[in-house]
Amino acid sequence: MTEEAPARHLDTLARATLAQFTGSLSPAALLLAWQDWRLHLAASPGKQIELVQLAMAQAQSLAGFYAQRLAAGAQRAEVPTPVQDRRFAAPGWRDWPFSLWHQAFLLSEQWWDAATHGVAGVSPHHEKLVAFWARQWLDMASPGNQLATNPVALKQTRDEHGLNLLRGAQRWLQDLQRLASHSPPEGTEAFRPGHEVAVTPGRVVLRNRVMELIQYQPSTPTVHAEPVLLVPAWIMKYYILDLSPHNSLVRHLVDHGHTVFCISWKNPGEAERDLGMDDYLDQGFFAALAAVQRIVPRTPVHAAGYCLGGTLLAIAAAAMARDGDDRLATTTFFAAQTDFSEPGELGLFIDDSQVSLLEAQMSETGYLDSRQMAGAFQMLRSYDLLWSRLVNSYLLGEAETLNDLMAWNADATRMPARMHSQYLRRLFLDDDLSEGRYPVGGRPVSLGSLRWPSFMVGTETDHVAPWRSVHKLHFLSPAEITFVLTSGGHNAGIVNPPVAGSHRHYRQLTRPADGAYLAPDEWQAAAMLHEGSWWPAWQQWLATHSGPQRKPPRLGLPGSTDLGAAPGHYVMER
Predict the structure, then answer these.
(1) Residue-wise over 313-333: b if at least 16 C-beta within 10 A, else e?
(2) Residue 394: predicted pLDDT
(3) Strand partners, 531
(4) Dihedral sign (CA 70, 75, 79, 81)
(5) Helix, strand, or coil here: 80?
(6) Alpha-carbon distance 87 to 105, whole Å?
(7) Positions marked catalytic
(8) What DSSP string runs through 227-274?
(9) Which one has a higher pLDDT value, 570 or 344?
(10) How far apart are CA 308 and CA 281, in angstroms?
(11) pLDDT tens digits along 2-55
(12) Under DSSP, is residue 106 helix (H, G, I), strand (E, B) or coil?
């Protein structure tokens, strides 16, 4: 990274110091959003009247509920509550006074939702910020989060004579110790890469400064002609695609006769601070692609990218199309955005003020700490990922049982300073890729040049890459696109093995090359609904786009030294 002038470096130090006290959140961004909303609300008497009327109607509703509840006496179930919410579904919440407290809280949530939306003149980004932080403060004040106002926790305390609180206090102290020592959460030791997870047999066939390339051992006597190259995001450890044997996408592909390669990204530290997007492109994807083609020569490759890895694949594929490079057979994108004009709730943490603060902090450390990213994701789903866990652990004294996906999620990675800054500015803030301005090799690339058949997966409840944003490649590229919308979120929707009785479902529809564009809602109405996992559909799609089966290729690059067995070294770095 270029050296700063002394005066500018002083500014960087000031912002980095500020970030330490604000949890890496920009107070300027929050203040600007608050001022924008407050000033426009003050100039909107009609909106103020609506809010007063809503408050009066809610007060009448709450008073009516209170009166009915008193009249019903012990027959609590006969009085319907004005507002229903899964957070307060336990029977104890229908008892007095908990029924009144949680109803008042839910009505307050409704009022603040109305107050923070629909104020004329407020910028969309500021409106989302104000609404988001209002939700965060309300979630913090929920009666379910306090012992004195939570009937479930009080009953547990009475039944156990306070032993639940003792267990909770012990767990709180243990969590503090683990946090101070940067240790993973309790229970993750049961899911060790190479032992319980990431156990599909394979070899590391390439290692460089950015990644290791794993080639998996075939399990069938013959394989489909074209190999599959998996490109995960470097914001995560690769083995989300190779979890336990029963839910490993890698094993699923290998067992169905595919030759599979997967990139395992290095967990960067201060020494990798100057790695940029070009390094992940050249030493990552293109280096892996070249190695795959040396092992399986004269054969195009099915490339599949997940999340940020899918964005990298789209950039690489656009550059290859521009340059007449025909080494790809198809492209697949799992929950991967190529247009960032509507990034979803993750965009709440990305504006010029916020990015400037992060850049200052990363200039001191050389990377973005994994705990900062984890904190942002927790706030996006604060009840599921934060408050409910705190209540269960510290008030109810219940030990959380981790599964392999939860343990993987705790095995977080860092982001190099230079790359993360480029990613946030060029893709999120400036949307250069979809606008045809993103440069590769000094020349811009265009998604409109993509012509390879593509398979895309969006997930219904994705807070990181909303499926409507993922779907936008239909608008940007004329290629044949088979789009799948599956139940689940950004991770659980992708880790979706075919299991009987899983209650999973997905929609699928293929838009032919140069076909008419269907907007997301039109696509959803037209796509056929299927029960079960989308994995078999993708595997069949790959087989359809593959040549005749042949003998499996050799393991490893010709003439290379053995670099060890999968899962390799980089996945072990913390």
Answers:
(1) bbbbbbbbbeeeeeebbbbbb
(2) 86
(3) 505
(4) positive
(5) coil
(6) 11
(7) 307
(8) -EEEE--TTS-GGGGS-SGGG-HHHHHHHTT--EEEEEE----GGGTT
(9) 570
(10) 12
(11) 556 677 778 778 777 877 777 778 888 899 999 999 999 999 999 999 999 999
(12) helix
